[in-house]
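new request in #modeling-help
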Amino acid sequence: MPVANSSPIEVYLADQLTEAIARAGFSLPEGARVEIEVPREEGHGDWASAAALALAKSARRPPREVAAAIVKAFSCDPGVLDRVEIAGPGFLNFHLAAAWLHDTLRRIVADPDTFGATDAGRGERILVEYVSANPTGPLNIVSARAASFGDALVRLLRASGYAADGEFYVNDWGLQAELFGASVRTRFAEARGAAAPAIPEEGYAGSYVGELAADLDPAQGAEWLALPEEDQRRRFGAWGIERMVASQRVALERFGVTMDRWFPEGDLHRSGALDVVLGRLEQAGHVYDRDGARWFRSTTFGDQDDRVLIRSNGIPTYSLADAAYHGNKFERGYDRLIDILGPDHHGHVTRMKALVQALGYDPARFEVILLQWVKLLRGGEVVKMSKRAGDFVTMEELVDEVGVDAARFFFLMRRGESPLDFDLELAVKRSEENPVYYVQYAHARIIHVLEFATGQGVPTPDPAGARLDLLSEPESEAVLRLLASFPSLVASAARAHEPHRITTYLKELAAKFHVFYHHHRVVTPDASLTAARLLLTKATGAVIRRGLGLLGVSAPEAM
RNA sequence: GCGCCCGUAGCUCAGCUGGAUAGAGCGUCUGCCUCCGGAGCAGAAGGCCAGGGGUUCGAAUCCCUUCGGGCGCACCA
Protein backbone atom coordinates (compact mmCIF):
# COMPACT_ATOMS: atom_id res chain seq x y z
CA MET A 1 0.00 0.00 0.00
CA PRO A 2 1.53 3.29 -1.05
CA VAL A 3 1.76 6.14 1.41
CA ALA A 4 -0.31 9.12 0.46
CA ASN A 5 1.83 12.23 0.35
CA SER A 6 -1.02 14.16 1.85
CA SER A 7 -1.20 12.10 5.00
CA PRO A 8 1.25 12.29 7.90
CA ILE A 9 3.37 9.18 8.24
CA GLU A 10 2.08 8.32 11.70
CA VAL A 11 -1.46 8.07 10.37
CA TYR A 12 -0.28 5.41 7.96
CA LEU A 13 1.60 3.56 10.70
CA ALA A 14 -1.37 3.79 13.06
CA ASP A 15 -3.63 2.33 10.37
CA GLN A 16 -1.25 -0.57 9.78
CA LEU A 17 -0.98 -1.11 13.50
CA THR A 18 -4.74 -1.13 13.93
CA GLU A 19 -5.05 -3.78 11.28
CA ALA A 20 -2.30 -5.86 12.84
CA ILE A 21 -4.00 -5.69 16.23
CA ALA A 22 -7.22 -6.97 14.69
CA ARG A 23 -5.43 -9.71 12.79
CA ALA A 24 -3.69 -10.81 15.98
CA GLY A 25 -7.08 -11.26 17.55
CA PHE A 26 -7.09 -8.37 19.99
CA SER A 27 -9.77 -5.74 20.21
CA LEU A 28 -9.45 -2.13 21.25
CA PRO A 29 -11.85 -0.65 23.78
CA GLU A 30 -14.91 1.02 22.25
CA GLY A 31 -14.05 4.11 20.28
CA ALA A 32 -10.38 3.93 21.17
CA ARG A 33 -7.76 4.80 18.62
CA VAL A 34 -4.27 3.45 18.41
CA GLU A 35 -1.87 6.02 19.80
CA ILE A 36 1.44 6.47 18.10
CA GLU A 37 4.00 9.03 19.12
CA VAL A 38 7.55 10.23 18.85
CA PRO A 39 9.53 8.69 21.70
CA ARG A 40 11.46 11.05 23.90
CA GLU A 41 14.57 8.94 23.84
CA GLU A 42 16.63 8.61 20.73
CA GLY A 43 17.23 4.95 20.06
CA HIS A 44 13.61 4.10 20.75
CA GLY A 45 12.76 4.32 17.10
CA ASP A 46 11.24 7.11 15.06
CA TRP A 47 7.75 6.33 16.26
CA ALA A 48 6.52 4.24 19.13
CA SER A 49 3.30 2.80 20.41
CA ALA A 50 2.24 1.58 23.82
CA ALA A 51 -0.72 -0.28 22.36
CA ALA A 52 0.46 -3.66 23.63
CA LEU A 53 0.64 -2.36 27.19
CA ALA A 54 -2.84 -0.99 26.93
CA LEU A 55 -4.20 -4.25 25.52
CA ALA A 56 -2.45 -6.53 27.97
CA LYS A 57 -5.05 -6.23 30.69
CA SER A 58 -8.15 -7.05 28.69
CA ALA A 59 -6.25 -9.76 26.80
CA ARG A 60 -5.09 -11.19 30.13
CA ARG A 61 -1.67 -11.82 28.72
CA PRO A 62 1.74 -10.29 29.47
CA PRO A 63 2.40 -7.08 27.51
CA ARG A 64 5.48 -8.41 25.76
CA GLU A 65 3.56 -11.47 24.59
CA VAL A 66 0.84 -9.23 23.20
CA ALA A 67 3.48 -7.12 21.51
CA ALA A 68 5.04 -10.19 19.91
CA ALA A 69 1.69 -11.28 18.51
CA ILE A 70 1.05 -7.84 17.05
CA VAL A 71 4.48 -7.68 15.44
CA LYS A 72 3.90 -11.09 13.91
CA ALA A 73 0.66 -9.88 12.34
CA PHE A 74 2.17 -6.56 11.26
CA SER A 75 2.83 -5.88 7.64
CA CYS A 76 4.10 -2.70 6.11
CA ASP A 77 5.72 -1.33 2.99
CA PRO A 78 9.47 -2.04 3.37
CA GLY A 79 10.12 1.22 1.55
CA VAL A 80 8.58 2.99 4.52
CA LEU A 81 9.49 0.93 7.54
CA ASP A 82 12.75 -0.78 8.24
CA ARG A 83 11.66 -2.79 11.26
CA VAL A 84 9.49 -2.95 14.36
CA GLU A 85 11.09 -3.79 17.67
CA ILE A 86 9.67 -4.75 21.02
CA ALA A 87 11.32 -2.84 23.82
CA GLY A 88 11.10 -2.37 27.54
CA PRO A 89 7.83 -3.52 29.09
CA GLY A 90 6.23 -4.00 25.68
CA PHE A 91 6.64 -0.84 23.61
CA LEU A 92 6.60 -1.17 19.86
CA ASN A 93 9.38 0.86 18.30
CA PHE A 94 9.07 1.65 14.64
CA HIS A 95 12.24 2.35 12.72
CA LEU A 96 11.65 4.14 9.45
CA ALA A 97 13.49 2.93 6.40
CA ALA A 98 16.34 5.07 5.14
CA ALA A 99 14.66 4.87 1.73
CA TRP A 100 11.59 6.61 3.13
CA LEU A 101 13.68 9.40 4.64
CA HIS A 102 15.45 9.83 1.33
CA ASP A 103 12.19 9.93 -0.57
CA THR A 104 10.97 12.58 1.81
CA LEU A 105 14.06 14.66 1.21
CA ARG A 106 13.52 14.39 -2.55
CA ARG A 107 9.92 15.42 -2.07
CA ILE A 108 10.88 18.54 -0.14
CA VAL A 109 13.31 19.66 -2.81
CA ALA A 110 10.87 18.86 -5.62
CA ASP A 111 8.00 20.78 -4.04
CA PRO A 112 9.34 23.02 -1.27
CA ASP A 113 6.30 25.22 -1.00
CA THR A 114 3.77 22.58 -0.07
CA PHE A 115 5.81 20.29 2.14
CA GLY A 116 4.10 19.85 5.48
CA ALA A 117 0.64 20.27 4.04
CA THR A 118 -1.70 17.35 4.73
CA ASP A 119 -5.38 16.60 4.40
CA ALA A 120 -5.61 15.68 8.08
CA GLY A 121 -8.49 18.14 8.58
CA ARG A 122 -10.57 16.54 5.82
CA GLY A 123 -12.00 19.85 4.72
CA GLU A 124 -13.76 20.56 7.99
CA ARG A 125 -14.99 24.15 8.08
CA ILE A 126 -13.68 26.16 11.01
CA LEU A 127 -14.27 29.79 11.85
CA VAL A 128 -11.62 31.42 13.97
CA GLU A 129 -12.73 34.67 15.57
CA TYR A 130 -9.86 36.72 16.89
CA VAL A 131 -8.75 40.18 17.96
CA SER A 132 -12.34 41.57 17.89
CA ALA A 133 -11.13 44.61 19.81
CA ASN A 134 -13.58 47.40 20.50
CA PRO A 135 -13.53 49.89 17.63
CA THR A 136 -13.13 52.69 20.13
CA GLY A 137 -9.37 52.89 20.14
CA PRO A 138 -6.19 51.68 18.50
CA LEU A 139 -5.15 48.04 18.78
CA ASN A 140 -2.92 47.42 21.76
CA ILE A 141 -0.35 44.84 22.61
CA VAL A 142 -2.85 42.21 23.74
CA SER A 143 -4.56 42.54 20.39
CA ALA A 144 -1.17 42.07 18.77
CA ARG A 145 -0.75 38.78 20.58
CA ALA A 146 -4.23 37.70 19.55
CA ALA A 147 -3.51 38.73 15.97
CA SER A 148 -0.30 36.69 15.88
CA PHE A 149 -1.95 33.68 17.45
CA GLY A 150 -5.16 33.72 15.45
CA ASP A 151 -3.50 34.31 12.12
CA ALA A 152 -0.94 31.56 12.74
CA LEU A 153 -3.72 29.21 13.76
CA VAL A 154 -5.67 29.91 10.58
CA ARG A 155 -2.54 29.32 8.50
CA LEU A 156 -1.85 26.08 10.38
CA LEU A 157 -5.39 24.82 9.98
CA ARG A 158 -5.33 25.54 6.27
CA ALA A 159 -2.03 23.74 5.85
CA SER A 160 -3.56 20.76 7.61
CA GLY A 161 -6.53 20.43 5.35
CA TYR A 162 -9.14 22.41 7.24
CA ALA A 163 -11.23 25.05 5.51
CA ALA A 164 -10.50 27.80 8.01
CA ASP A 165 -11.56 31.44 7.97
CA GLY A 166 -10.55 34.30 10.22
CA GLU A 167 -13.08 36.83 11.38
CA PHE A 168 -13.17 40.07 13.38
CA TYR A 169 -16.36 40.88 15.29
CA VAL A 170 -16.87 44.63 15.39
CA ASN A 171 -18.67 45.86 18.50
CA ASP A 172 -20.13 48.90 16.81
CA TRP A 173 -23.37 48.89 18.81
CA GLY A 174 -24.46 49.63 22.31
CA LEU A 175 -23.16 51.56 25.27
CA GLN A 176 -19.46 51.59 24.40
CA ALA A 177 -20.18 52.90 20.92
CA GLU A 178 -22.37 55.60 22.42
CA LEU A 179 -19.75 56.63 24.98
CA PHE A 180 -17.19 56.77 22.23
CA GLY A 181 -19.51 58.96 20.18
CA ALA A 182 -19.94 61.32 23.11
CA SER A 183 -16.16 61.48 23.60
CA VAL A 184 -15.45 62.27 19.96
CA ARG A 185 -18.20 64.88 19.99
CA THR A 186 -16.78 66.60 23.04
CA ARG A 187 -13.24 66.70 21.66
CA PHE A 188 -14.51 68.10 18.39
CA ALA A 189 -16.52 70.78 20.15
CA GLU A 190 -13.64 71.70 22.47
CA ALA A 191 -11.29 72.22 19.56
CA ARG A 192 -13.74 74.63 18.01
CA GLY A 193 -14.51 76.47 21.22
CA ALA A 194 -18.09 75.25 21.19
CA ALA A 195 -19.93 74.38 24.36
CA ALA A 196 -20.29 70.64 25.00
CA PRO A 197 -20.83 68.28 27.90
CA ALA A 198 -17.65 66.88 29.47
CA ILE A 199 -16.49 63.42 28.44
CA PRO A 200 -18.56 60.91 30.42
CA GLU A 201 -17.03 59.22 33.44
CA GLU A 202 -16.68 55.94 31.56
CA GLY A 203 -15.85 57.62 28.26
CA TYR A 204 -12.68 57.70 26.19
CA ALA A 205 -10.16 60.29 27.28
CA GLY A 206 -7.15 59.10 25.29
CA SER A 207 -5.32 61.68 23.22
CA TYR A 208 -6.09 59.73 20.05
CA VAL A 209 -9.72 60.78 20.38
CA GLY A 210 -8.77 64.42 19.96
CA GLU A 211 -6.57 63.59 16.99
CA LEU A 212 -9.41 61.65 15.46
CA ALA A 213 -11.88 64.49 15.98
CA ALA A 214 -9.47 66.91 14.30
CA ASP A 215 -9.88 64.88 11.11
CA LEU A 216 -13.60 65.47 10.92
CA ASP A 217 -14.85 67.86 8.28
CA PRO A 218 -15.66 71.03 10.34
CA ALA A 219 -18.85 71.78 8.45
CA GLN A 220 -20.11 68.25 8.94
CA GLY A 221 -19.25 68.31 12.62
CA ALA A 222 -20.91 71.65 13.17
CA GLU A 223 -24.06 70.33 11.56
CA TRP A 224 -24.11 67.34 13.90
CA LEU A 225 -23.54 69.56 16.95
CA ALA A 226 -26.88 71.16 16.25
CA LEU A 227 -28.67 67.83 16.68
CA PRO A 228 -30.21 66.54 19.92
CA GLU A 229 -27.77 64.82 22.34
CA GLU A 230 -28.77 61.30 21.38
CA ASP A 231 -28.31 61.93 17.66
CA GLN A 232 -25.01 63.67 18.29
CA ARG A 233 -23.65 60.61 20.02
CA ARG A 234 -24.90 58.36 17.26
CA ARG A 235 -23.50 60.43 14.40
CA PHE A 236 -20.10 61.15 15.94
CA GLY A 237 -19.94 57.55 17.14
CA ALA A 238 -20.70 56.00 13.76
CA TRP A 239 -18.19 58.25 12.07
CA GLY A 240 -15.50 57.62 14.68
CA ILE A 241 -16.00 53.88 14.66
CA GLU A 242 -15.74 53.72 10.90
CA ARG A 243 -12.44 55.57 11.12
CA MET A 244 -11.15 53.37 13.95
CA VAL A 245 -12.08 50.16 12.16
CA ALA A 246 -10.31 51.38 9.05
CA SER A 247 -7.16 52.16 11.00
CA GLN A 248 -7.33 48.82 12.83
CA ARG A 249 -7.55 47.14 9.47
CA VAL A 250 -4.49 49.01 8.24
CA ALA A 251 -2.57 48.13 11.40
CA LEU A 252 -3.43 44.45 11.02
CA GLU A 253 -2.51 44.39 7.33
CA ARG A 254 0.81 45.92 8.20
CA PHE A 255 1.20 43.15 10.78
CA GLY A 256 0.59 40.60 8.04
CA VAL A 257 -2.94 39.74 9.12
CA THR A 258 -5.84 39.78 6.69
CA MET A 259 -9.27 38.94 8.05
CA ASP A 260 -11.63 37.06 5.78
CA ARG A 261 -14.49 39.02 7.17
CA TRP A 262 -15.27 41.95 9.46
CA PHE A 263 -18.60 41.26 11.06
CA PRO A 264 -20.43 44.29 12.50
CA GLU A 265 -22.56 43.63 15.55
CA GLY A 266 -24.98 46.24 14.20
CA ASP A 267 -25.94 43.90 11.34
CA LEU A 268 -27.41 41.49 13.86
CA HIS A 269 -29.50 44.20 15.51
CA ARG A 270 -30.74 45.62 12.22
CA SER A 271 -31.65 42.24 10.74
CA GLY A 272 -33.72 41.17 13.73
CA ALA A 273 -31.42 38.26 14.46
CA LEU A 274 -31.66 38.95 18.19
CA ASP A 275 -35.42 38.48 18.18
CA VAL A 276 -35.09 35.25 16.28
CA VAL A 277 -32.54 33.87 18.69
CA LEU A 278 -34.57 35.00 21.68
CA GLY A 279 -37.57 33.20 20.19
CA ARG A 280 -35.56 30.02 19.84
CA LEU A 281 -34.43 30.22 23.45
CA GLU A 282 -37.98 30.89 24.62
CA GLN A 283 -39.34 27.99 22.64
CA ALA A 284 -36.79 25.71 24.21
CA GLY A 285 -37.98 26.91 27.63
CA HIS A 286 -34.77 28.58 28.74
CA VAL A 287 -36.18 32.08 29.23
CA TYR A 288 -38.17 33.62 32.10
CA ASP A 289 -39.16 37.09 33.35
CA ARG A 290 -38.02 38.60 36.61
CA ASP A 291 -37.78 42.18 37.91
CA GLY A 292 -38.96 43.49 34.55
CA ALA A 293 -36.09 41.84 32.67
CA ARG A 294 -35.91 38.69 30.57
CA TRP A 295 -33.51 36.10 31.86
CA PHE A 296 -31.66 33.15 30.38
CA ARG A 297 -31.65 30.14 32.67
CA SER A 298 -27.95 29.46 32.14
CA THR A 299 -27.64 27.68 35.49
CA THR A 300 -29.24 24.72 33.67
CA PHE A 301 -25.98 24.44 31.77
CA GLY A 302 -23.62 24.82 34.69
CA ASP A 303 -23.32 28.60 34.83
CA GLN A 304 -23.15 30.11 38.31
CA ASP A 305 -25.99 32.57 37.80
CA ASP A 306 -28.76 33.12 35.31
CA ARG A 307 -28.05 35.91 32.84
CA VAL A 308 -30.09 38.83 31.58
CA LEU A 309 -30.96 38.84 27.89
CA ILE A 310 -33.29 41.87 27.79
CA ARG A 311 -32.80 44.55 30.40
CA SER A 312 -35.75 46.05 32.24
CA ASN A 313 -35.32 49.14 30.03
CA GLY A 314 -35.98 46.97 26.98
CA ILE A 315 -32.43 47.07 25.63
CA PRO A 316 -30.88 43.70 24.82
CA THR A 317 -27.60 42.74 26.46
CA TYR A 318 -24.34 41.95 24.79
CA SER A 319 -24.93 38.29 25.63
CA LEU A 320 -28.03 38.12 23.47
CA ALA A 321 -26.19 39.73 20.56
CA ASP A 322 -23.37 37.27 21.08
CA ALA A 323 -25.81 34.38 21.04
CA ALA A 324 -27.20 35.68 17.77
CA TYR A 325 -23.68 36.05 16.42
CA HIS A 326 -22.68 32.49 17.24
CA GLY A 327 -25.95 31.19 15.86
CA ASN A 328 -25.16 33.11 12.72
CA LYS A 329 -21.74 31.47 12.49
CA PHE A 330 -23.28 28.00 12.67
CA GLU A 331 -25.91 28.97 10.12
CA ARG A 332 -23.18 29.99 7.75
CA GLY A 333 -22.21 26.33 7.69
CA TYR A 334 -19.18 26.16 9.94
CA ASP A 335 -18.59 22.78 11.53
CA ARG A 336 -16.63 24.27 14.37
CA LEU A 337 -16.12 27.65 15.96
CA ILE A 338 -13.03 28.85 17.76
CA ASP A 339 -13.10 32.10 19.73
CA ILE A 340 -9.79 33.55 20.74
CA LEU A 341 -10.43 35.86 23.64
CA GLY A 342 -8.45 38.02 25.98
CA PRO A 343 -8.17 37.14 29.65
CA ASP A 344 -10.71 39.82 30.56
CA HIS A 345 -13.40 37.81 28.79
CA HIS A 346 -12.96 34.94 31.15
CA GLY A 347 -16.42 35.32 32.65
CA HIS A 348 -18.09 34.92 29.27
CA VAL A 349 -16.96 31.44 28.47
CA THR A 350 -19.43 29.45 30.56
CA ARG A 351 -22.28 31.73 29.52
CA MET A 352 -21.44 31.46 25.84
CA LYS A 353 -21.13 27.70 26.01
CA ALA A 354 -24.48 27.62 27.75
CA LEU A 355 -26.10 29.76 25.07
CA VAL A 356 -24.66 27.66 22.27
CA GLN A 357 -25.99 24.55 23.94
CA ALA A 358 -29.39 26.10 24.64
CA LEU A 359 -29.67 26.94 20.97
CA GLY A 360 -29.34 23.26 20.24
CA TYR A 361 -25.76 23.10 19.02
CA ASP A 362 -23.30 20.52 20.23
CA PRO A 363 -21.06 22.43 22.67
CA ALA A 364 -18.14 20.34 21.47
CA ARG A 365 -18.32 22.30 18.23
CA PHE A 366 -17.54 25.52 20.07
CA GLU A 367 -14.17 26.15 21.60
CA VAL A 368 -12.73 29.13 23.40
CA ILE A 369 -9.03 29.83 23.64
CA LEU A 370 -8.20 32.31 26.36
CA LEU A 371 -4.97 34.15 25.80
CA GLN A 372 -3.21 35.48 28.84
CA TRP A 373 -1.84 38.95 29.40
CA VAL A 374 1.32 40.30 27.91
CA LYS A 375 3.71 41.88 30.36
CA LEU A 376 5.71 44.43 28.46
CA LEU A 377 9.28 44.91 29.61
CA ARG A 378 12.09 47.15 28.51
CA GLY A 379 15.41 45.81 29.69
CA GLY A 380 13.75 43.98 32.56
CA GLU A 381 11.67 46.98 33.66
CA VAL A 382 7.90 46.72 33.46
CA VAL A 383 6.30 49.17 31.03
CA LYS A 384 3.10 50.48 32.56
CA MET A 385 -0.04 50.44 30.50
CA SER A 386 -3.36 51.96 31.38
CA LYS A 387 -6.05 52.02 28.77
CA ARG A 388 -8.19 54.32 30.85
CA ALA A 389 -5.80 57.23 30.49
CA GLY A 390 -5.12 56.27 26.90
CA ASP A 391 -1.53 55.66 27.85
CA PHE A 392 -0.64 52.32 26.31
CA VAL A 393 1.64 50.81 23.75
CA THR A 394 -0.25 50.32 20.53
CA MET A 395 0.34 47.56 18.06
CA GLU A 396 1.72 50.09 15.61
CA GLU A 397 4.21 51.42 18.14
CA LEU A 398 5.28 47.86 18.85
CA VAL A 399 5.85 47.16 15.16
CA ASP A 400 7.76 50.43 14.79
CA GLU A 401 10.05 49.46 17.61
CA VAL A 402 10.73 45.74 17.11
CA GLY A 403 9.41 44.92 13.63
CA VAL A 404 6.78 42.46 12.49
CA ASP A 405 9.02 39.39 12.51
CA ALA A 406 10.30 39.73 16.06
CA ALA A 407 6.87 40.66 17.40
CA ARG A 408 5.09 37.70 15.82
CA PHE A 409 7.80 35.21 16.70
CA PHE A 410 7.88 36.35 20.33
CA PHE A 411 4.12 36.13 20.68
CA LEU A 412 4.21 32.59 19.35
CA MET A 413 6.96 31.27 21.57
CA ARG A 414 4.59 30.55 24.43
CA ARG A 415 1.39 28.64 24.80
CA GLY A 416 -1.57 30.97 24.56
CA GLU A 417 -2.64 30.14 28.10
CA SER A 418 0.69 31.23 29.53
CA PRO A 419 1.25 34.83 30.46
CA LEU A 420 3.92 36.30 28.24
CA ASP A 421 6.85 38.49 29.13
CA PHE A 422 7.75 40.59 26.12
CA ASP A 423 11.06 42.34 26.44
CA LEU A 424 11.33 45.11 23.86
CA GLU A 425 15.07 45.34 24.27
CA LEU A 426 15.60 41.63 23.75
CA ALA A 427 13.32 41.53 20.73
CA VAL A 428 15.51 43.95 18.80
CA LYS A 429 18.79 42.54 20.03
CA ARG A 430 20.80 40.95 17.26
CA SER A 431 22.47 38.34 19.36
CA GLU A 432 22.25 34.73 20.40
CA GLU A 433 19.84 35.67 23.16
CA ASN A 434 17.24 36.42 20.53
CA PRO A 435 15.62 33.27 19.11
CA VAL A 436 14.17 35.08 16.10
CA TYR A 437 17.62 35.83 14.82
CA TYR A 438 18.84 32.35 15.67
CA VAL A 439 16.29 30.82 13.28
CA GLN A 440 16.51 33.51 10.64
CA TYR A 441 20.29 33.32 10.75
CA ALA A 442 20.17 29.62 9.94
CA HIS A 443 18.12 30.42 6.87
CA ALA A 444 20.39 33.23 5.72
CA ARG A 445 23.38 30.98 6.24
CA ILE A 446 21.79 28.25 4.14
CA ILE A 447 21.12 30.64 1.29
CA HIS A 448 24.68 31.82 1.49
CA VAL A 449 26.08 28.30 1.38
CA LEU A 450 23.97 27.44 -1.64
CA GLU A 451 25.22 30.58 -3.36
CA PHE A 452 28.77 29.75 -2.41
CA ALA A 453 28.41 26.31 -4.01
CA THR A 454 27.08 27.82 -7.19
CA GLY A 455 29.95 30.30 -7.19
CA GLN A 456 32.41 27.42 -6.91
CA GLY A 457 30.96 25.93 -10.07
CA VAL A 458 29.23 23.08 -8.25
CA PRO A 459 26.36 21.85 -10.44
CA THR A 460 22.81 21.93 -9.09
CA PRO A 461 22.36 18.55 -7.43
CA ASP A 462 19.96 16.12 -9.06
CA PRO A 463 17.64 14.69 -6.38
CA ALA A 464 16.86 11.56 -8.42
CA GLY A 465 20.42 10.43 -8.85
CA ALA A 466 21.92 11.68 -5.59
CA ARG A 467 23.65 9.29 -3.19
CA LEU A 468 21.51 10.22 -0.21
CA ASP A 469 22.84 7.22 1.69
CA LEU A 470 25.96 9.33 2.22
CA LEU A 471 24.01 11.38 4.74
CA SER A 472 24.81 8.82 7.38
CA GLU A 473 26.64 10.83 10.03
CA PRO A 474 24.61 11.36 13.23
CA GLU A 475 24.51 15.12 12.63
CA SER A 476 23.15 14.72 9.08
CA GLU A 477 20.68 12.06 10.05
CA ALA A 478 19.36 14.16 12.91
CA VAL A 479 18.52 16.96 10.50
CA LEU A 480 16.99 14.55 8.01
CA ARG A 481 14.72 12.94 10.59
CA LEU A 482 13.61 16.28 11.90
CA LEU A 483 12.78 17.45 8.38
CA ALA A 484 10.76 14.30 7.76
CA SER A 485 8.72 14.85 10.93
CA PHE A 486 7.56 18.31 9.85
CA PRO A 487 4.22 17.26 8.30
CA SER A 488 3.31 15.32 11.44
CA LEU A 489 4.23 18.28 13.58
CA VAL A 490 2.12 20.67 11.54
CA ALA A 491 -0.86 18.33 11.73
CA SER A 492 -0.55 17.90 15.49
CA ALA A 493 -0.06 21.62 16.11
CA ALA A 494 -3.17 22.32 14.05
CA ARG A 495 -5.20 19.69 15.85
CA ALA A 496 -4.12 20.94 19.27
CA HIS A 497 -4.50 24.60 18.19
CA GLU A 498 -0.99 25.29 19.40
CA PRO A 499 1.07 27.38 17.00
CA HIS A 500 3.91 27.60 19.50
CA ARG A 501 4.89 24.06 18.60
CA ILE A 502 6.05 25.36 15.24
CA THR A 503 8.22 27.95 16.95
CA THR A 504 9.76 25.33 19.19
CA TYR A 505 10.36 23.06 16.21
CA LEU A 506 12.06 25.79 14.23
CA LYS A 507 14.45 26.55 17.05
CA GLU A 508 15.32 22.88 17.22
CA LEU A 509 15.73 22.55 13.47
CA ALA A 510 17.96 25.61 13.33
CA ALA A 511 20.06 24.18 16.18
CA LYS A 512 20.40 20.77 14.50
CA PHE A 513 21.37 22.41 11.25
CA HIS A 514 24.01 24.59 12.93
CA VAL A 515 25.45 21.45 14.49
CA PHE A 516 25.54 19.66 11.15
CA TYR A 517 27.07 22.68 9.48
CA HIS A 518 29.73 23.00 12.12
CA HIS A 519 30.80 19.38 11.88
CA HIS A 520 30.68 18.82 8.14
CA ARG A 521 31.60 20.88 5.15
CA VAL A 522 28.85 21.07 2.61
CA VAL A 523 31.05 21.82 -0.37
CA THR A 524 33.73 19.14 -0.51
CA PRO A 525 36.05 17.70 -3.17
CA ASP A 526 33.76 14.65 -3.31
CA ALA A 527 31.03 15.45 -5.87
CA SER A 528 28.55 12.83 -4.61
CA LEU A 529 28.92 13.86 -1.00
CA THR A 530 28.61 17.53 -1.92
CA ALA A 531 25.42 16.85 -3.87
CA ALA A 532 23.85 14.95 -0.96
CA ARG A 533 24.74 17.64 1.56
CA LEU A 534 23.56 20.41 -0.72
CA LEU A 535 20.19 18.67 -0.98
CA LEU A 536 19.97 18.39 2.80
CA THR A 537 20.89 22.06 3.13
CA LYS A 538 18.40 23.11 0.51
CA ALA A 539 15.61 21.09 2.11
CA THR A 540 16.37 22.55 5.53
CA GLY A 541 16.11 26.04 4.10
CA ALA A 542 12.78 25.15 2.54
CA VAL A 543 11.33 23.78 5.76
CA ILE A 544 12.52 26.77 7.79
CA ARG A 545 10.88 29.01 5.20
CA ARG A 546 7.66 26.96 5.39
CA GLY A 547 7.63 26.97 9.17
CA LEU A 548 8.28 30.69 9.46
CA GLY A 549 5.60 31.21 6.82
CA LEU A 550 3.07 29.43 9.01
CA LEU A 551 3.92 31.91 11.76
CA GLY A 552 3.75 34.88 9.42
CA VAL A 553 7.47 35.55 9.87
CA SER A 554 9.80 36.26 6.97
CA ALA A 555 12.81 34.15 6.03
CA PRO A 556 15.52 36.64 5.05
CA GLU A 557 18.14 35.59 2.50
CA ALA A 558 20.73 37.82 4.09
CA MET A 559 20.96 39.60 7.42
C1' G B 1 -16.80 33.52 49.20
C1' C B 2 -17.50 30.85 44.20
C1' G B 3 -15.27 29.64 39.40
C1' C B 4 -11.22 29.26 35.67
C1' C B 5 -5.78 29.36 34.44
C1' C B 6 -0.92 28.64 36.25
C1' G B 7 3.31 26.57 39.67
C1' U B 8 9.07 22.19 35.75
C1' A B 9 17.19 24.17 36.43
C1' G B 10 19.27 30.78 39.30
C1' C B 11 15.83 33.33 35.07
C1' U B 12 12.28 32.65 30.76
C1' C B 13 9.88 28.40 29.14
C1' A B 14 9.19 23.30 26.08
C1' G B 15 7.57 18.53 27.32
C1' C B 16 3.10 16.49 21.06
C1' U B 17 -3.84 15.46 25.20
C1' G B 18 -0.93 8.81 30.56
C1' G B 19 4.67 6.18 28.45
C1' A B 20 10.78 4.30 28.67
C1' U B 21 16.77 7.72 31.93
C1' A B 22 12.30 15.19 32.56
C1' G B 23 14.62 18.91 27.85
C1' A B 24 16.04 23.80 25.49
C1' G B 25 17.53 28.97 25.60
C1' C B 26 19.53 32.71 28.68
C1' G B 27 22.83 33.46 32.83
C1' U B 28 27.55 31.17 35.21
C1' C B 29 32.30 28.44 34.29
C1' U B 30 35.87 26.13 30.35
C1' G B 31 37.24 25.69 25.30
C1' C B 32 36.80 26.41 19.41
C1' C B 33 37.63 31.39 13.85
C1' U B 34 44.28 30.62 8.15
C1' C B 35 38.76 26.85 7.08
C1' C B 36 31.21 27.28 2.89
C1' G B 37 28.46 33.56 7.51
C1' G B 38 31.59 33.03 15.14
C1' A B 39 24.26 36.36 14.76
C1' G B 40 27.73 29.87 15.16
C1' C B 41 29.75 25.26 17.75
C1' A B 42 31.74 21.80 21.87
C1' G B 43 31.78 20.78 27.11
C1' A B 44 30.71 21.58 32.60
C1' A B 45 27.52 22.78 36.55
C1' G B 46 22.51 23.24 37.77
C1' G B 47 15.85 19.24 39.39
C1' C B 48 11.85 15.90 45.72
C1' C B 49 8.33 18.63 38.04
C1' A B 50 5.30 23.75 44.73
C1' G B 51 3.84 20.04 49.22
C1' G B 52 0.75 15.75 50.52
C1' G B 53 -2.70 11.82 49.27
C1' G B 54 -5.06 8.83 45.34
C1' U B 55 -6.25 6.33 40.29
C1' U B 56 -2.78 1.89 37.31
C1' C B 57 1.42 -2.02 34.47
C1' G B 58 3.25 3.38 34.23
C1' A B 59 1.83 10.30 36.45
C1' A B 60 5.22 16.62 35.29
C1' U B 61 0.55 15.10 32.63
C1' C B 62 -5.73 12.56 35.30
C1' C B 63 -8.69 13.03 40.47
C1' C B 64 -8.78 15.06 45.73
C1' U B 65 -6.40 18.39 49.14
C1' U B 66 -2.98 22.26 51.16
C1' C B 67 0.13 26.35 50.01
C1' G B 68 1.56 30.20 46.62
C1' G B 69 0.67 33.48 42.07
C1' G B 70 -2.76 35.47 37.97
C1' C B 71 -7.69 36.48 36.25
C1' G B 72 -12.79 36.52 36.32
C1' C B 73 -17.72 36.66 39.14
C1' A B 74 -23.00 43.49 35.87
C1' C B 75 -29.76 44.68 33.76
C1' C B 76 -20.69 47.19 30.69
C1' A B 77 -18.46 45.20 26.42
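bot summary: Chain A is about 50% helix and 10% strand.
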